[in-house]
Amino acid sequence: MPEGPDADSPAGAAPAGAAPAADPESVARAICLRLLTMAPKTRAQLAEALRKREVPDDAAEAVLSRFSELGLIDDEAFATAWVDSRHHGRGLAKRALAAELRHRGVDTDTVKEAVDRLDPDQEAETARRLVERKLAVTRSLDPRARTRRLAGMLARKGYPSGLAFRVIREALEQEGIDMEEDFP
Q1: Were 93 and a residue from 47, 64, 105, 158 both cysteine, which residue would form a disulfide, CB within 3.0 to 4.6 Å?
Q2: How far is 109 from 114, CA to CA, in rounded Å?
Q3: How far apart are CA 123 and CA 128, in angstroms?
Q4: pLDDT average, residue stretch 122-135
Q5: What average pLDDT score do residues 155-182 get?
Q6: Average pLDDT over the chain, rounded to an integer
Q7: Does the CA dihedral 51-61-56-31 come out positive or negative?
Q8: The whole model's pTM is what?
């Protein structure tokens, strides 16, 4: 009878008690499926997760390509859904949405296409709603301080300053506050 823990195992097999080496593509599929069941991900996010898990590049590319063919990875659909969700839910403007998508690895053309679907009138209306919600908590401040606070809030959400000041001016004038001409 052969002696030693590996004597009965074929060459290259894992020692007794150790898990056998998994096929890199199986590992990549399992990682991608687990991540995609938690939340939609971009191809770049999945590729980064596979790199961190040290999945070989060829296995990662094979799995990512297959998932793309099957429609499990679709950066265009991700970008469109992201823009709709974040604009309506958080009130983010095109600039902030584009930055978030680029941060998630979506390519420039796809980002542009997704954010260009936002109608400028819709973006202005969202800015108006955001300002209306904040007006009540700023009533005790002078108009300049209110304007700064409201403009800061809109800037953090990615609104251009021209739109922000126009919307703020309209809102304050509706409250009966006469805005000076040289006021921003």
Answers
A1: 158
A2: 9
A3: 9
A4: 94
A5: 86
A6: 87
A7: positive
A8: 0.78
